[in-house]
Amino acid sequence: MLQPLVDAFWNADVWLPPNTTWEDIAPGPHKVVVYADHRHVFFPIPLAFVFICLRFVLQRLVYAPFGKSLGIKDTRPRKAPSNPKLEAAYRASPKLKQPCGLAKQLDMTERQVERWWRLRRSQDKPSTLIKFCENVWKFTFHTGNFLFGLYILWDKEWLWNIDHCYIGYPHQGVTNDVWWYYMVSAAFYWSLTISQFWDVRRKDFWQMFVHHIATVSLISFSWVCNLHRIGTLVLLLHDCGDVFVEAVKAAKYANYQRTCDALFLCLIVVWIGTRIFMFPFYLLWSTTIRAPMLLPMFPAYYFFNSLLCLLLCLHVVWTFLILQIAYKTIQAGMMEGDIRSSSEISDSPENSNHNASNCTNNKK
Description:
Strand content: under 5%
């Protein structure tokens, strides 16, 4: 019953250039070109769970002891006293909006409600050691994957001349090293998409979730449609900047301020150079302007290009956040906070006084 829907979805007129069928790019022993096997698009999913397990082992045996040797403590905040009604209100909305109303309902003072709320919010915050381990894991992967990608692409003609991403398409073969680069990269982003729901929750949770989904979609569909050449360039460009993103945060958590400041300066240069200049003016320009000159367009190609445009929008948002941190760094004399700070907003004494004054005014 579902076969007609599947056939309609994978219509060759949508996913492939004109006059090309799926049989034309299907792998086979008697074909000169080694085509990508579309069934391999599912390989990264089980491999993602291998990454999650590997991360857990490294965190327990390597990253956590390394962080402790740097003086990072795995301290946990004090738990808030048990209060079912306040707990229900907190789960309904983690932000304290009406402390006066809660105080009246529970026969408590506003100060007591705010103090309980601060303690409860602190419970959800991971320790500095956990955040350090998460960043070191990502730094390890992005560094290794960038070096591996650079190594395997060094002798590929499309690294030096991007036109070769389109010349001869779709009859472009896949070598074993590119196969591994694609599968490992896809598995890592699948693992991030899965583990994001229990990792350190940050302000840009949904932006990162959209980024991971867009990346996984790009990798998957570009593999199926044999657009792996442009895909490898996108992966290489992203890994380069992500190395410094994770290094800066790890150095900050380890309280290596001078190292953090130096890495942050490198991050600004590399991030803006790759994400704001090379990505739109070299890669996206090529996929948008140059590609139509070298191969006939087809509907799925516009979908791929729209996902690249979505990534560019996310790059612009994150660049704005990084420049905000840079501006505050210049004012403070050192890098403060995290590039992507935790989503929890601290309940400072100033906020408490503000809330208390509002309650007093309401009572009047």
